[in-house]
Write a structure and sequence with these properties.
With 47 residues, this protein is mainly α. The protein has 1 helix and no strands. It has one helix at 2-40. It is rod-shaped, with a radius of gyration of 20 Å.
Length: 47
């Protein structure tokens, strides 16, 4: 029972960190595209 529990918590940790990395990737892409957009449309960029 104990080894299964350890494997399960390792799996959950890996899954959580994978989701975290996916979220980071999403935000990196978002900021990259926002930067591109700001450079292309600088006259319309009010912020």
């Amino acid at each position: 029972m104990m080894p299964f529990f350890d494997l399960h918590s390792i799996y959950l940790c890996c899954k959580a960190s994978y989701n975290f990395m996916e979220t980071l990737n999403f935000f990196n892409l978002f900021w990259f595209y926002k930067k591109e957009w700001d450079e292309k449309f600088i006259p319309f960029n009010l912020f």
